[in-house]
Every structure is written in C-alpha cells, then in structure tokens.
C-alpha cells in the first residue's frame, strides 16, 4: 500500500489534520481556526490575526463559482480567464467575440459593465451552532428537525441582514456538527478590465486540462465600482517583487466547492455506484451533443463554447474522483479507519449511547436514496426554462412567511435572485432548443417513453419538436415581461399563456415532491447522523480539524514543489520558452495554436520568465482564481487548475503527486507589458 493511501484514509475519516498524527500539508482550513501550531512547528511561521484578516478581506468570491482577490487600491480584482469566461461570453456578439480576441480597457470609460455578475467579500464570521441546534426539540422526527433547522437558518439570516445590511448566509460545517453565520459585503457593479485570448488562457485545450507541465495565461481582471466610482478596498494584496521559489511555503485563499472527505464508507459507495456513474453518463452524452452542435457553423461554436468547456471540465474531474472511489486500496483503508473510530465510540458506553448508531443511519439514508436518485436529479439545463421555474416558484413562495419558503426564495436571497432573473444577458434560441431537446430526450431514455412525467413534459410531441415550440413560442427573453410576471405574482402566472411558464407550472408539483422527499428522508437523516459523527470525532480527536469544503473561504498551504511521474522528475516551474517549444511540437493540433501576437512579439519577451508553477496546497474546483500568497501576504501566483493526480482530492488528500497549478505573477506582468501594451494596468498592480 502506498504512503499516500495511508495518509488520505487517516485524514479523510478521522479529520485530525493539525494533530501529531498529520503527515502532510493537508487541509482547507477555516480562517477562524487555522493550523497555527502545525505551521509554527513545521515552517516557523505563525499567521497573526492581522495577517489572517488582511488575506481574508482581500479575497473575493464569484457567486457563479470561483475565487478572486483585490490587487489594487482602486478595486481591481484578479481571477482566472475561465472564471470570467461566462461574462466574456455575455459581453460578446457575433461580430466581436471577446473569447477569441481578448479585451483590454485602456481607460476607465472603456471598462465593460457585466450584466449580472455578483461578488462577495467575507467580512465577519459568527458561530450560531447553539441557535440552529436549539431549534430541534426532543422527539422530533428527522424530517421535522430538518425543517426546524431550515426555518431557524432563514430567521437568523434575515435578522442579520436587517441589522447589518450585509449579505448573510448560514454555513453548515462538519456536515451538521457546527453552523457559522458568514456576513459578506456584496458588490454588483463589476466591470471587465482585461482578458487575454482564450487560445493562450487555455493553451493545450482539453488535452492538457488537469495536466502538468502547463503553459496557460489563465487570468482575467475586473474592477469593482461602488456608487459609480472605483471601490477603495480596505484590504488588497500587494504584488510580490520576486515571485516564489522552489521549496517556498505559500498559501492559497479561496472558495473550494464541495469535498466528501468526511463521508462514511456507505456514503462513498453510493457516490461510487450511483451518483458518479449517473453524472458521468450525462456528461459524456452531452459532450458529444455539444460537439455536434458546435460543428454546424462558427456561430454555433461560439455560443456553445462555455457549455462545452464546462461539460468537458466536469467529465474529466469526475473521472478522477470516480477512479479514487474505484480504487480498492483507498476503500479498504477507509473501511479500516472507520472501523477504528466506531470501535472507539463503542468502547465508551456514553459515546455509544449518543452516537453509536450514526453510521447505520447514514447507510439507511443512502439505501433509500438509491430508490429515487434519478428522479430527484432529473431536470433540464436551460436559461429560459430556469427563468420560468424561478418565476413560478417565486410567485408561490413569496406568499409564505419568510421562514417557511424554499431557501433560495427567502428574503436574504432575493437580491441575488433578482440580479440573475432580470439579467439582460443574451439568450440564443438555437442553443436553448438543443439544451431542452437534450433534457427531454434524456428524460425519456431514463424513465421510458410511457412514463407519466416524461409524457407531461413532452406534451404529445417529440423532444426536438417540443423544444422548438417552447423556445420559439416563449417571450421570456423580454426582461420587462419577466419583471411584470414577478410583480404580478400568482395571478399573473395563472393568467400567462407563455408555453415555458405553462410547462414550469405543469412540472413543478412533482419536482417539489421529489425535493421534499429528499430533504425529509435523506438530507434530514444525513444531518442528524453526521452531527453525531462530528461530535464523536471532536470528543475522541479534538476540534483541531478542518470541515469539508462548502464554497466558503478557506486557507490551504504547502511548499512550491515538483513531483515524480513515470520515473522522471517534473520541475515546479515552466517558462515562456517551454510554451513556444510545445506550440512548435504540437503545431496544427487542436488547442495548441498561440495567438498571432505571441509569435509577432516573441523577441520582446524574457523567455526564461517563470510562467506556471505547482505547489502542494490542498485545492479543488471552486479554488480557480484563488490568489497564492507568501508569508508577507503578497500575491505570487494565481491558481487555475490541479494536475490529474489531484482529482482524487474531493474524497481524500495526497501530496505525493497531487499539485495545485498556478500562473506566476512574474509572467502576468511580463505579458501585460510585452504582449498586450497594458503598462498602465501593470503599473497599477505594482504600485505599493
């Protein structure tokens, strides 16, 4: 058994990443509970409260998914090109494709306002565990307990927003062991400043995605405005003059999406046998469809580019997760370590009485979920249908007391909902038809042509014909109409003859029923059981542990460090020279065409400039766009990927070969000055 399996199983099941048992730089740590002792003992560095506050308040969350950071006194925000690509698409036209050409605003007046981008900055954190758990009384069923927790969560968020005027969100940690109230500063006037061409930002394409060495300038810059003027952040990251060095300790501050390291063995088996295979089937299917759609003409390729990238990226990421779940050695060690924890609980009569049945309860929930997982997870990815569902549900939910609504329609979430619901972003009929036809066809393939729900969705037509009728007949592309329907509530929805609205009305009852079944029988049971497991872990191992990722701000760390693959040493840094060599070797192959300006200005570049680098920091999806900072709190890099060996990190950590991949800040400045004539932007970033 390899050394990394021993590490991952120990940490994933017991979660004791800062104790004497730790053998690796693992962990996505809360800013309120960093591994200070471990960092001091191993690296001689102790993050002070001031250092933590500075990094925390310099970090940014993109609400659509992704991380970022403030890097200037004038509200300049740095993230990845692939994080900002959705906004580049929305700002593009058939005549001006910003993904192809790139973008640079030479003046503030030229900065392009994003139609519906929202970013958040975590300001304060408060433990509200007692209030959430106190909402559950003895004798409640798991379903009623889950409802009570949900109502209390909504109440706390509403109280917080009324009192602070901040965006308040209760975050579930340790799968129900703790609850924290995160208070965010929210910004919606965001403007695009600079982005390179996609051909250089995603150099190597799908072939090199999740691989290393890499040669990507995966960067994008926005500016935050407040009251019509550039925002002056209280904290922003200064640019390191020297970058990073091999062996140097660095930190990653970002918003990792979701990890499953604290899952029980039975829960992991459910992921292995049900969740991941279903997801992979849909992704492979949709990837082929989108490739076919994109091949019809250049405009179809342009409007489907974001969908295709997302599907390919998701397919490759899930392949890595599934490989870990299918590894007998990993699962065997998981079972062994879970057995040890359960034995420790059983050995103490008090522990056994409180928590001994938790693992069986999780297993029972997974067995139930197997019975209706495809039904619960069925649905269509479509902008227009999504708008219709939101309008239908919003009308119904707003009639209810705030605490009794579906979470996404609570008062605390409405501003974000309205920003997206009333966005003037472009919606393309041909792509929408393809999306809906795909969703309807998959529904028939999964449930059968005679299934009542599928028949209701099809309305007596073929998937393609139904999609054509819905998209050509709806008027929901009209933002003013959406506002009228929203303001008119249930009366306006009932009176609407819009085919997309009518479909949403028809399908909503069954969709709500499956959701309620999931929340009552699965989510409620899991939170009840996992709260017990968390309590057992705290009692036996202490609370020096990090929770699973929740798309909230975390701190990871590790040295800049290469790795061995296939018997050869892979160095930690690449250079511009290596990029040109790779472009020459792979000339004519998809994904390896450099933009012409990079060939025209090659002689201006310092070719030995460090370009991309790797470190052992513990990251997953959602960390894209995270700043890499040094001990001084200066930015030295920009996370944009992990290598193929890192894909298992959703369920277990390893540092043997798994690496986080970043753009070096020295390469960013060199490209700005020598390739893009963006000296003013470079000078703004370098100004101290």
What does this structure look like?
Helices cover 50% and strands 15% of the residues. The strands form three sheets. Strands 1, 2, 3, 4, 5, 6, 7, 8, 9, 10 and 11 form an eleven-stranded antiparallel beta sheet that branches. It has a seven-stranded antiparallel beta sheet with strand order 13-12-18-19-20-17-16. 47% of the residues are buried. Helix 10 runs antiparallel to helix 11 and helix 15 crosses helix 20 (479-495). It is of the alpha+beta class. A hairpin with a 4-residue loop joins strand 1 and strand 2 (67-70). The two termini are 50 Å apart. The longest helix is centred in the last third of the chain and has 43 residues, at 499-541.
Topology:
Blueprint: H1 3-14, H2 36-43, H3 49-58, E1 59-62, E2 67-70, E3 76-79, H4 81-90, H5 98-101, E4 103-104, E5 112-113, E6 119-127, H6 129-134, H7 142-164, E7 167-173, E8 178-187, E9 189-195, H8 198-201, H9 205-208, E10 220-226, E11 229-230, E12 249-254, H10 265-294, H11 298-325, H12 328-346, H13 349-355, H14 358-377, H15 383-397, H16 411-421, H17 429-447, H18 452-458, H19 463-473, H20 479-495, H21 499-541, E13 554-559, E14 563-565, E15 568-570, E16 573-575, H22 576-585, H23 596-600, E17 610-615, E18 627-629, E19 635-642, E20 660-664, H24 665-674, H25 679-686
Antiparallel strand pairs: 1-2, 1-6, 2-3, 3-10, 4-9, 5-9, 6-8, 7-8, 9-10, 10-11, 12-13, 12-18, 14-15, 16-17, 17-20, 18-19, 19-20
Helix pairs in contact: 1-12, 7-21, 10-11, 10-14, 10-17, 14-21, 15-20, 15-21, 17-18, 17-19
């Amino acid at each position: 058994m390899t050394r990394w399996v021993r590490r991952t199983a120990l940490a994933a099941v017991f979660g004791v990443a800062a104790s004497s048992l730790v053998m690796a730089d693992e962990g996505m740590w809360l800013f309120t509970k960093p591994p200070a002792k471990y960092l001091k003992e191993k690296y001689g560095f102790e993050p002070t409260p001031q250092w933590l506050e500075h990094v925390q308040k310099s970090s940014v969350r993109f609400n659509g998914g992704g991380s970022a950071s403030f890097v200037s006194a004038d509200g300049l925000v740095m993230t990845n090109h692939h994080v900002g690509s959705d906004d580049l698409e929305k700002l593009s036209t058939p005549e001006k494709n910003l993904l192809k050409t790139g973008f640079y605003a030479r003046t503030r007046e030229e900065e392009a306002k994003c139609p519906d981008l929202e970013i958040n900055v975590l300001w304060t954190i408060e433990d509200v565990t007692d209030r959430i758990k106190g909402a559950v009384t003895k004798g409640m069923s798991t379903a009623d307990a889950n409802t009570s927790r949900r109502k209390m969560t909504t109440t706390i968020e509403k109280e917080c927003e009324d009192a602070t005027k901040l965006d308040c969100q209760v975050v579930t940690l340790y799968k129900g062991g703790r609850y924290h109230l995160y208070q965010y500063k929210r910004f919606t006037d965001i403007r695009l400043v600079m982005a390179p061409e996609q051909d250089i930002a995603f150099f190597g394409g799908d072939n090199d995605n999740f691989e290393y060495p890499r040669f990507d300038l995966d960067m994008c810059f926005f500016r935050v405005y407040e009251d019509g003027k550039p925002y002056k952040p209280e904290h922003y990251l200064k640019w390191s003059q020297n970058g990073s060095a091999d062996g140097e300790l660095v930190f990653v501050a970002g918003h990792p999406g979701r990890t499953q390291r604290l899952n029980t063995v039975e829960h992991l088996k459910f992921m292995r046998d049900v969740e991941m295979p279903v997801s992979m089937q849909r992704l492979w299917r949709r990837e082929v469809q989108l490739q076919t759609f994109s091949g019809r003409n250049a405009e179809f390729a342009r409007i489907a580019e974001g969908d295709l990238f997302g599907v390919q990226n998701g397919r490759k990421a899930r392949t890595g997760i599934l490989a870990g779940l299918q590894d007998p050695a990993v699962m065997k060690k998981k079972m062994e370590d879970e057995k040890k924890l359960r034995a420790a609980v059983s050995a103490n009569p008090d522990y056994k009485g409180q928590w001994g049945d938790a693992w069986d309860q999780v297993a029972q929930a997974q067995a139930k979920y197997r019975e209706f997982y495809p039904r619960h997870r069925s649905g269509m990815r479509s902008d227009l249908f999504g708008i219709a569902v939101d309008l239908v549900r919003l009308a119904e939910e707003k009639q209810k007391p705030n605490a009794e609504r579906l979470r996404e329609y609570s008062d605390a979430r409405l501003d974000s909902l309205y920003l997206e619901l009333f966005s003037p972003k472009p919606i393309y009929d041909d792509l929408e038809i393809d999306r809906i036809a795909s969703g309807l066809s998959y529904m028939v393939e999964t449930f059968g042509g005679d299934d009542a729900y599928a028949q209701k969705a099809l309305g007596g037509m073929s998937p393609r014909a139904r999609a054509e009728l819905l998209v050509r007949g709806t008027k929901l592309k009209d933002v003013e109409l959406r506002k009228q329907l929203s303001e008119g509530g249930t009366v306006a929805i009932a009176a609407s003859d819009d085919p997309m609205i009518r479909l949403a009305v028809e399908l909503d009852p069954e969709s709500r029923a499956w959701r309620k079944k999931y929340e009552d029988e699965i989510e409620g049971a899991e939170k009840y059981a996992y709260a017990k497991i968390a309590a057992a872990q705290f009692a036996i191992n202490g609370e020096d542990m990090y929770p699973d990722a929740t798309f909230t701000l975390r701190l990871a760390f590790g040295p800049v460090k290469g790795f061995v693959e296939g018997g050869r040493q892979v160095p930690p840094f690449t250079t511009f020279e290596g990029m040109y060599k790779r472009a020459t070797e792979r000339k004519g192959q998809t994904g390896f065409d450099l933009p012409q300006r990079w060939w025209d200005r090659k002689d201006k570049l310092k070719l030995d400039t460090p370009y991309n680098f790797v470190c052992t920091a513990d990251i997953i999806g959602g960390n894209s766009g995270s700043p890499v900072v040094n001990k001084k709190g200066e930015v030295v890099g920009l996370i944009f990927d992990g290598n193929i060996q890192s894909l298992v990190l959703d369920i277990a950590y390893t540092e043997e070969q798994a690496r986080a991949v970043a753009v070096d800040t020295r390469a960013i400045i060199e490209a700005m000055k020598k390739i893009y004539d963006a000296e003013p932007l470079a000078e703004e970033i370098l100004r101290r």
